[in-house]
Amino acid sequence: MSPKAFRERGYLSLFASYYRPHMALFLLDMICALGIAAVDLSFPQVSRWAMQTLLPDRLFATFFAVMAILILAYVLKAGLSFIVTYWGHLMGVRIEADIRRDLFAHMQTLSFSFYDKNRTGHLMSRVTGDLFEIAELAHHGPEDMFISAVTLLGAFVVMLNMQWKLALAVFVVVPVFLLFSVFQRKRMMRSSTQVKQKLAGINGEVESCISGMRTAKAFANEDTERAKFEAANDRYRNAKRGYYRTMAIYFSGMEFAMGILPVLVIAYGGILIMQGEMDFITLTTFSLYVTTFISPIRKLSAFMEMLMQGTAGFKRFVDLMRLEPEIQDAPDAVELGASAPVAGDIRVEDVTFRYESTSPAVLEGVSLHVHPGETVAVVGPSGGGKSTLCQLIPRFYDVTEGRILLDGWDVRELQQRSLRENIGIVQQDVFLFAGTIYDNIRYGRPDATEEEVIEAARRAEIYEDILEMPDGLNTYVGERGVMLSGGQKQRISIARIFLKNPPILILDEATSALDSVTEHRIQSAFDELAKGRTTLIIAHRLSTIRSANRILVIDGCGIAEEGTHEELLARGGRYAALYEAQRAVAAE
Ligand code: ADP
């Protein structure tokens, strides 16, 4: 479903739409739930009938046959409970998986700006926590409501039939308990949310204390850290106190209700018996019905809580699904490279760019032309907008004013996929996916053969390093994997691009200092990669700058200087100053 379809439908209809593919399981769940309620409701009536009619006539054989049937009924109920618990949860988890699939597919369409504004941790909690609560509601919601309503209603009818005065007395008291239960549960939930919020903060502090252990030791500041840790620990302890108090009130209240209700019934029943309006067996049966009341009351109040959490989670999910991606293909978008091979001619025409409509311009009136096969280096002070410029070419963001042309096409007229397939980007901080080095290199072209992967690793000058690792190409990297140096990660990302083999290249060099051997290897890998491709380099190192055909100096909002290394040095302007400064640092 598109974001538009999500916007046009209400929450309830959207929620119901997730049940549609699992209708068979849903009906099975409901039928079994009905069976469970029926067994619970018939037991007191049947045993009353057996006691009243069979026992006085000493029809013991029939009496025990009826008891055996009741036992069988409870065996059946156990079977039904199994189905409801197992298949019902399965239905819930399938709905959860469907929702998660839709959510992830939608998140993939959202643009960079969305990920700038939303933190990963926050999004993760949506994909895990929220969806779990939705699944619980999807499964328990209809079933709990159904079983509880049927049981309560059924018991009400039966009790009215048996002794209407006693039944009415019970129905005056029960709503009081129900209200108490719902109210207390709500309080419990509120304080549990508070505890969760506090815990998140405390966990953050604890994490910082632990990850800062080395710094603390270096400054001999263990005492300060311990004091901070203990303060966090105390707040953790106190945060839970309020929660446990509401929990204790709730449980003791429910215990009280469970105990007092049968006592009240028996006391008032005693009066009715005194007045000759009722017999002993009816009173016994009646008390049994009173106990069948308690569990639906508990279930209903638990359901209220689940409903609140589940609907809040589902609303957050729907709100996300309703977001329209900021960058979308035009309906008549053109496939780059479909009609002619991609030459790699990049023109930036009078481009102005702001991250937010209200924030200051990062680039203002920038124009440049990179000819096919040319290597252009962009240099300038940090924060000058170099990375931003590079992100506009693959259309990670759209220009605010002006336009960017690729082989004469405005990038907004091209299919994003075809645009990005033709651009290779080596970013400053390389992301490695959890998996082997082999998988991570093959990410550049998932159908590459092992020989091609090895060849790419060789050309990226990383193969020798890989051979020295514990499992070679099959060494596990990413989270909980082998730690790679920044230089190694960059060469892995270069290997990816060798496999991808795009006509256009964007290199965002690492700013962090590299040793001279690593720098040399990265440089020669870059040079090899840049051959025959249009290349835009954000250069921080002298060596890369010198190998460029042309150098652009970006400063403040636009291009301050342009020319070859020699031309710019001769001019003695910003570039010359920057170069001198870098050389002085390098010499040190
Ligand atoms: P450079 O690569 O020259 O160091 P950048 O292009 O990274 O410069 O940054 C230019 C300016 O844009 C900086 O002021 C930076 O704070 C801002 N900026 C960079 N990325 C974002 C973003 N995703 N959202 C908002 N502002 C950003």
TrEMBL record:
The lineage, from the top, is: Bacteria, Bacillati, Bacillota, Clostridia, Eubacteriales
What region holds the ABC transporter domain?
Answer: 346-581
Q: What range(s) does the ABC transmembrane type-1 domain occupy? A: 27-309
Which Pfam families does the UniProt record give?
ABC_membrane (PF00664), ABC_tran (PF00005)
Could you tell me which PANTHER family the record lists for this protein?
Answer: ATP-BINDING CASSETTE SUB-FAMILY B MEMBER 10, MITOCHONDRIAL, ATP-DEPENDENT PERMEASE MDL1, MITOCHONDRIAL
Give the residue spans that cross the bilayer: 21-39, 59-87, 144-160, 166-183, 247-274
**Cellular location(s):** Cell membrane
Q: Where is it predominantly found?
A: membrane
Q: Which PROSITE patterns match?
A: ABC_TM1F, ABC_TRANSPORTER_1, ABC_TRANSPORTER_2
Its recorded name reads ABC transporter ATP-binding protein
Topology in the lipid bilayer is annotated as: Multi-pass membrane protein
Keywords, in A-Z order:
ATP-binding, Membrane, Nucleotide-binding, Transmembrane, Transmembrane helix
Give the top-rank taxon of the lineage listed in the UniProt record for this protein.
Bacteria
GO MF terms listed in the record are: ATP binding
